[in-house]
Write a structure and sequence with these properties.
The chain is α+β, with helices and mostly antiparallel strands. The protein is built from four helices and seven strands.
């Protein structure tokens, strides 16, 4: 296990929001994170490099399903395996808690994320036309089955 990956709580929200703003034009708010963390709707993992949050992954666990809600790595720290470390830890949690399947959606143009998810074994199961409110881009829907 990569000990630079830890589970985040409400005390990390400001760092997560700063990273969100760097990574997405249309980003989550502090309140969305706070409510999700407080009522246990999401699990958020963070990757720390010398005490600085350089990546995070938010997902939900509902019954036997995991859904990836958000994944972002600091623009200056990409292609160093941070996204991979975060996903590996999420998969470990899923296997330990008996999760059967995982879903996610991703913008059709987001080749980096598509490559990463495919490397983890996700398969495309559908498409939602003009799904994203910011760009009206298509969403590609992916699924992974934990064996
Ligand atoms: C997508 C993202 C999270 C990937 O994080 P990362 O830490 O750079 O990913 P990794 O270094 O673990 O990459 C693992 C593999 O994914 C693929 N990959 C990642 N970024 C890629 C890119 N820009 N182009 C092509 N392939 C890419 C590669 O196969 C890579 O392996 P390699 O570097 O050995 O070739 C990051 O680019 C990011 O934050 N993007 C902006 C936010 C975003 O789009 N989030 C996803 C929302 S669904």
């Amino acid at each position: 296990m990569d000990n630079r990956v830890i589970q985040l709580d409400e005390s990390n929200i400001d760092q997560v929001i700063a990273l969100e703003k760097l990574c997405f034009a249309y980003h989550w708010t502090s309140e969305q994170f706070r409510l999700g963390l407080r009522d246990g709707a999401y699990t958020v993992l963070g990757f720390f490099d010398k005490g600085i949050l350089t990546g995070y992954l938010a997902f939900s666990l509902i019954e036997d399903e995991m859904e990836i809600l958000n994944l972002a790595v600091h623009p200056k720290c990409r292609r160093q395996g941070i996204g991979t470390s975060l996903l590996k830890q999420a998969f470990r949690i899923c296997r330990e808690t008996g999760i059967a399947k995982s879903f996610l959606d991703v913008k059709e143009s987001n080749k980096g994320a598509l490559n990463l998810y495919k490397k983890f074994g996700y398969n495309q199961i559908g498409i939602r036309k003009k799904y994203y409110p910011d760009t009206r881009e298509n969403a590609l829907l992916f699924r992974y089955d934990f064996k």
